[in-house]
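Question (not urgent): is this output format expected?
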Amino acid sequence: MVDAQTIGVLVTAVSVTVAAIYYIFTLRINSRTQELALKAQQQNLETRQTQLLMGIFDMMMKRDIMDAYTNLMNLEWVDYDDWTSKTKTGTAFLDASLIWRYMECVGFIVKSKLLDAEKYYGINGDTVIKVWDKFSGVIETQRRLYEMPDRFSGFEYLADEMKRIREQRGFKLGYTEAFKRAYNFPPR
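Got this back:
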């Protein structure tokens, strides 16, 4: 016959086994819950980045931005003094301010890792590179003259990132150079 001590040992052993099984199930459930939460968080982040990217794209497609970009890219100058004389009056100064500050803002967003540079490259990478290549000399002169070494550093960062991505994708020439070479345009 089974005595009370044996029953106590069996009850204790069964209780410990049940507790261990419960603990294992709880760990698995918690692990799965964490995986699902991380997946939802990643999807939420991707959705937010897509929304941010679309907002930036919408802003870029506004008529005033497009007009400012066109005006700015058609502007020609010989040196910084000529640049200054051409941008003192008219809309050239406002066009430059609008486009450069737009690029500065996007550069800050990309540098802060709030927007993936690869994703941005797909919608506007070549444009950033063209604008930076055309105006980097003016911006660098302003940095020196006004003793503002970080002036438009977000814009510069964005241009450098776009160039890095372009090179990773196998493009060695700039857009303008490649276009000219493809269509046999004479150099300027």
